[in-house]
Design brief:
Layout: H1 2-10, H2 12-31, H3 41-50, H4 52-60, H5 76-91, H6 93-101, H7 103-128, H8 139-166, H9 171-181, H10 184-195, H11 199-224, E1 226-233, E2 235-238, E3 241-244, E4 247-253, H12 260-277, H13 283-291, H14 297-318, H15 321-330, E5 333-334, H16 342-367, H17 369-377, H18 385-410
Antiparallel strand pairs: 1-4, 1-5, 2-3
Helix pairs in contact: 1-18, 2-8, 3-4, 5-6, 5-7, 5-12, 7-8, 8-9, 9-18, 11-18, 12-13, 12-14, 14-16, 15-16
Length: 416
């Protein structure tokens, strides 16, 4: 990996992409420190410290929420818009056809929906903070603040698309990655303060670090793991030439959805509790806050179920066994022991379902791990399994793209 990265830096074109991505990261970090006027910073700090969910939201935004900056909402409206558009591809045949035939139109609709959802979320957040942290009162001030938040999200969406187009990796995922990584020094400081409590706490921290290392190893193994379904292509005689006859395989990844199910589930689970924190005197809001906090059993059960659902949902969108079976049949291929057509697609579906089940349970277990660690050791760390999963998953995906780019540039043909 280090050799590939070193080689990429030495390649002029790849070096330009890496530098461009780092510049976009710098712009993102600068934006997280540009405050939106009209807020009481001390009140925001108190809210983030009291509401654990807001603390995790602050990690995703790279400290932008605590600083109440123009990037306070991070890229979550874009993620929610992507969820809605992907759900619509299942519900509406027209949108499904558009997703296959006209990707540019699909991206354009997602952008418009991001701005609409961003403004609604910004307006709700501003009104929710009105009693506790908003200094500037009045309808005009609320509209200005909401528009500023929405513009910040639109700017992040634009930065993410620029990274995808001109940089390296998936820009939206890398923005979330940069936000989480920027909070690592704060997490290290929290661990250091926790160790000062005595030898027992030191043992807890040592236990946590061992678990974190095992989690990282497990994430790498699961993300790299795949089931290879063998495919045999029959020989075809065309004139005097013989085509086909080779053996290959279909790689079915254990975790084909990556970190997308965790991000989707996290965005949905954050919504009710975040809204509830803005209404401390409401009985319904208090009930939601008590039963849907990140450390509650109810929250973690729903969180795990949503991850299972989105893992299967996203995997079914990105990998269609019927299309794979048709492509194999059209090219004169077959899976040994199975007839082409429906038996092949049913077999691929069965294999994919079993493999995806293991990947989904692994993602859910990693996501609920912080609550388990809190119950066992009392260590209240926001940088838990979900953050590690996102960081490691995005890093692996980015390195794969770098390796594929380098492979394309260094490939030597048969004549050399």
């Amino acid at each position: 990996m280090l050799a590939t990265l070193n080689q990429a830096i030495r390649t002029p074109e790849m070096r330009k992409k890496i530098i461009f991505t780092l510049i976009m990261f710098l712009i993102f970090r600068i934006g997280t420190h540009i405050p939106v006027p009209g807020f009481n910073k001390e009140a925001i700090d108190q809210l983030v410290d009291q509401a654990k969910l807001l603390g995790f939201f602050d990690i995703i935004s790279g400290g932008g929420f605590r600083n109440i900056s123009i990037f306070a909402m991070s890229i979550t409206p874009y993620i929610n818009a992507s969820i809605i558009m992907q759900l619509m591809t299942v519900i509406s045949p027209r949108i499904e056809a558009m997703a296959k035939d006209d990707r540019k139109k699909m991206v354009e609709w997602t952008r418009y929906l991001t701005v609409i959802l961003g403004f609604i979320q910004a307006l709700g957040m501003t009104i929710g903070l009105l009693r506790q942290a908003v200094i500037a009162q009045g309808a005009f001030s609320i509209i200005v603040i909401a528009v500023t938040f929405t513009a910040g999200t639109a700017c992040l969406m634009w930065i993410g698309e620029l990274i995808t187009e001109k940089g390296i990796g998936n820009g939206i995922s890398l923005i979330i990655f940069a936000g989480i990584v920027s909070k690592i020094p704060h997490g290290i400081n929290t661990l250091y303060e926790y160790v000062q409590g005595g030898p027992i706490r030191f043992l807890y921290v040592f236990f946590f670090l061992i678990i974190a290392l095992l989690i990282i190893m497990g994430i790498i193994v699961v993300n790299q793991g795949e089931r290879r379904v063998p495919v045999q292509y029959a020989k075809r005689v065309v004139g005097r030439k013989v085509y086909g006859g080779q053996s290959t395989h279909i790689p079915i990844k254990v975790n084909s959805a990556g970190v997308i199910p965790v991000i989707f589930a996290m965005s949905i689970m954050m919504l009710p509790s975040t809204i509830a924190t803005f209404f401390p005197n409401n009985s319904v809001a208090n009930f939601i806050s008590q039963n849907m906090s990140p450390n509650s059993i109810t929250y973690n059960i729903f969180y795990a179920l949503l991850i299972l659902f989105f893992t299967y949902f996203y995997s079914s969108i990105t990998f269609n066994p019927i299309d794979v079976s048709d492509n194999i049949r059209r090219n004169g291929g077959f899976i040994p022991g199975l007839r082409p057509g429906r038996p092949t697609s049913e077999y691929i579906t069965r294999v994919m379902s079993r493999i995806t089940l293991f990947g989904a349970f692994f993602l859910a277990a990693i996501a609920v791990l912080p609550a388990i660690i809190l119950g066992a050791t009392g260590m209240n760390l926001y940088f838990g399994g979900t953050s590690l999963l996102i960081v490691v998953g995005v890093a692996l995906d980015t390195m794969k793209q770098i390796e594929s780019n380098m492979l394309m540039r260094n490939y030597q043909g048969f004549m050399k």
